[in-house]
Specification:
The complex is a heterodimer of chains A (471) and B (278). With 471 residues, chain A is an alpha+beta fold. Chain A has helices at 2-14, 17-36, 43-60, 70-99, 107-112, 125-140, 167-188, 327-332, 398-417, 447-464, and strands spanning 116-122, 145-147, 153-160, 190-197, 201-207, 213-229, 235-245, 251-258, 263-265, 268-287, 293-298, 304-305, 313-320, 343-350, 353-354, 358-361, 375-394, 421-429, 434-443. Chain A has 4 domains: 2-97, no CATH class; 101-161 and 419-468, Kinase associated domain 1, KA1 (TATA-Binding Protein, 2-Layer Sandwich), CATH 3.30.310; 186-277 and 388-406, Tick-borne Encephalitis virus Glycoprotein, domain 1 (Sandwich), CATH 2.60.98; 279-384, no CATH class. With 278 residues, chain B is an all-alpha fold. Classes of the chains: A alpha+beta (471), B mainly alpha (278).
Chain lengths: 471, 278
């Protein structure tokens, strides 16, 4: 017995509007927290901001990724449950009352109600009675329905926007649809980034969250990257001209990606996000033994074989277009000046291990060289290569979200801007030469606003009956 | 006349309208209220002209765009939409006492633009989108409706508080409390769908520019916070114990959140929307 009562109370609480208000306010307050505490920072950054104790609390409570935390998701689930329960509780009753044809109001409505009028028509009662339907249709803009009650009176009713009362239910259902769409996208979609220099091809994307790569299923190559500027230097447009290829090498299509004009293929969309440049360095390698020289073009953190060696490799781990050294260091060491020009930091390694990294300078080719090294490495030149930064996203839930948004707006229009309006007209013959027409109207949601509309309806009916009315 | 001349003139006109409404409240002369209406209408028309002038000027400079792209332009538009919504309200419901509380908002909003940079600047790529116009207009119509509802709720709280004594002046001169409550509901019933359209158009724009329709950016999150508060308000009307004063406080809280969403986020927090300032 106790179980049943508990479930009923739970259902009552879950379907209460006060719970809705409570949840809306709680969600709002919790969301404020996420705007005051920076989201998705590294632990070290939180420690720098708040000290290690508070940073520990922040990460433990999930405040660093608040909107995906368990607590927030639970609140959203509660809101969804509240929506479903409220609808389940109220929709059947509303539907039944909407399916029922309205019955004529009592005499009180015609005599004492707020929006009512009585017209006394003199003339052939039969004539007025037979014309009544046409007159009412003209005055109220819609053909009336006739309801038979007794043989003395005629009851006509004109109804508007009956089903607009389903508006709130549509709005709530569409919110559920939107939540479902976001859930689907979160589970089955991904967000990532891709950097391509001109001419570079890639078939994988770095995920935004964490260091994982996701395969595209096809290849994308950046053919050209163009930046257009306004006269004052601010960017007017940047676009990437790309070609898509199958894994086999077959060309699929060309395309251009601009800000606000993304490219979509096979459910994956590429967005123009950012751009930048990275250095490409030209190194001259001299084999000390054979005196052979060779030129190598490389980028940062890209190992290359040293020619003529037994598996020795080198890598540039840092580059500065103009390396500067602090004042004190310039005095103490043998550097000729503080601005040393373009400088690259080289590290040589093989399977036995890494050697000590050293700097080489374009303008000071002799600095940093050591006689005993088997290879002499000189920085000959460098240039900046631009790359395009693309956001790559897949979100299968998006269409569902847009459908939900459209239905939400329709639901609003029905719920807040339309009103269910019912106007009754009762006609009765009083003797042979008099016919009395009563009129009573009401609107379900906004009776106050309807009062103004009723005045206009009253005037139009008066005009329609004017030929039988004494002024 | 240049745009800045027109704006300067409008600031004085709105202030004059405010003074007329205050006098209307003090002396209860209908003529003063009507004068306030006329002056406010003049201001709104002149402001519409100034917005048009700025729009045309941007095309003349070769960087044509609707004047809705930064803090200065949005604040000018905000002042104008509050004035327009208020004037529509006055025409329908004839309650001019509200003017004494709404005109200062219009005046302050427009006056604050004299502290901002009025330069017409070209649009960066992310702002070059048709969604910009739809998003800004719907958001600000929503904000303006919430501003008028805020004034109505303040009047409601004043009216429903005292029952005579030192509050006698207010009791005599304000419309009935339930009428004020009904007005604020009707205005929010217009503002809330507008705000919802604003969020939706913003999400559609974000989807085409940044690859995702929602990224919990502070600006997006605060617009959701505002949405939730007004959703709570609309439900408070049919919840036991939440009608009347509690609902009015929700409306006031909602407007405070609206102002933080519009200004606080840009000026105090950082995020994707920060380029909208200046």
């Amino acid at each position: 017995m106790r179980e049943v009562i508990n479930i009923n109370t739970l259902y009552d609480r879950l379907s209460s509007i006060r719970l809705t208000i409570f949840l809306c306010i709680i969600l709002a307050v919790v969301s404020v927290l996420g705007t005051l505490i920076p989201q998705n920072l590294a632990v070290a950054q939180y420690q720098a901001l708040y000290g290690s104790r508070v940073a520990g609390i922040v990460t433990a409570l999930g405040l660093s990724d608040l909107y995906h935390s368990v607590g927030f998701v639970i609140l959203l689930c509660l809101l969804a449950a509240n929506l479903v329960a409220c609808t389940a509780k109220r929709l059947p009753g509303t539907w039944r009352s909407l399916r029922r044809e309205p019955s004529p109001p009592s005499d009180a409505a015609f005599h004492n109600g707020k929006c009512r009028e009585t017209f006394v028509c003199s003339g052939a009662a039969g004539e007025v009675e037979s014309q009544l339907g046409r007159v009412v249709a003209k005055a109220l803009g819609r053909r009336p329905r006739e309801v038979a009650v007794d043989s003395i009176h005629r009851f006509l009713v004109v109804e508007k926007n009956r089903y607009s009362r389903l508006g709130p239910y549509l709005a709530h259902a569409s919110i559920l649809l939107i939540l479902l769409g976001t859930l689907w996208g979160a589970l089955q979609g991904f967000k990532g980034a891709l950097q391509l220099t001109e001419g570079e091809t890639s078939s994988e994307v770095w995920l935004q969250t964490g260091a994982r790569k996701v395969p595209l299923g096809f290849e994308i190559r950046c053919d050209r990257f163009v930046i257009d500027e306004y006269p004052d230097g601010t960017p007017r447009e940047y676009r990437s001209e790309v070609t898509l290829f199958e894994g086999s090498g077959a060309r699929i299509m060309n395309g251009a990606i601009r800000v606000n004009h993304p490219l979509t293929y096979r459910g994956i969309t590429f967005y123009q996000s950012t751009y930048g440049s990275i250095p490409e360095l030209t190194l001259q390698i001299r084999d000390q033994e054979s005196s052979e020289e060779s030129l190598v073009k490389t980028e940062l953190n890209a190992p290359f074989l040293l020619p003529g060696s037994q598996g020795d490799r080198a890598m540039i781990v840092a580059f500065q277009p103009d390396l500067q050294i602090p004042e004190e260091m310039a005095r103490v060491t043998s550097f000729p000046r503080r601005n040393l020009g373009p400088a690259a930091r080289v590290v040589i390694f093989n399977e036995k291990g890494f050697e000590e990294p050293f700097w080489v300078f374009k303008d000071l080719p002799d600095m940093g060289q050591k006689e005993e090294r088997p290879h002499q490495i000189v920085l000959k030149d460098f240039r900046q290569i631009s790359y395009t930064g693309l956001q790559v996203a897949k979100d299968p839930g998006t269409p569902l979200v847009w459908i939900g948004c459209t239905l939400l707006v329709i639901g609003f229009v029905m719920a807040l801007l339309m009103d269910h309006e019912i106007v009754w007209v009762k006609g009765e013959a009083v003797g042979e030469n008099e016919y009395v027409v009563h009129m009573a109207g009401r609107a379900v949601r906004h009776p106050g606003v309807y009062a103004t509309r009723f005045e206009r309806q009253k005037l139009r009916l008066e005009r329609g009956l004017s030929q039988w009315l004494n002024t | 006349m240049t745009e800045s001349h027109l704006i300067g003139l409008c600031i004085w006109i709105y202030m004059a309208s405010w003074l007329l409404y205050l006098l209307h409240v003090a002396f209860r002369k209908k003529a003063l209220g009507l004068a306030g209406d006329m002056v406010a209408l003049t201001g709104a028309v002149l402001q519409a002209l100034s917005i048009g002038v700025r729009w045309m000027e941007s095309y003349r400079m070769g960087i044509g765009h609707a004047p809705l792209s930064n803090l200065y332009e949005s604040m000018v538009f905000f002042a104008w939409t509050i004035a327009v919504i208020y004037l529509v309200f006055v025409r329908k419901f004839k309650d001019r006492l509200l003017g004494a509380l709404v005109m200062p908002l219009v005046f302050l909003a427009l006056a604050s633009t004299s502290l901002m940079n009025p330069e017409i600047r070209p649009l960066v790529p992310a702002l070059q989108s048709n969604w910009l116009t739809a998003h800004v207009i719907t958001c600000f119509l929503g904000y303006a409706a919430f501003a008028v509802a805020f004034s109505l709720s303040v009047l409601y709280l004043l009216k429903s508080r005292g029952r005579g004594g030192s509050e006698g002046f207010l009791q005599m001169h304000l419309p009935p409390a339930d009428l004020l409550d009904d007005f604020s509901y009707r205005i929010i019933a217009v503002g809330f769908p507008m705000m919802t359209l604003g969020i939706i158009t913003g999400a559609a724009w974000a989807n085409s520019a940044w690859g995702t329709y929602w990224s919990w950016d502070p600006k997006e999150t605060w617009s959701l916070i505002v949405w939730l508060i007004y959703a709570a308000y609309l439900h408070a009307r049919i919840a036991r114990g939440w009608q009347g004063r509690r609902a009015a406080w929700l409306s006031i809280l909602g407007f405070a959140a609206t102002m933080f969403c519009y200004l606080g986020v840009n000026l105090l927090l950082s995020g994707l929307h920060s380029y909208a300032t200046g």
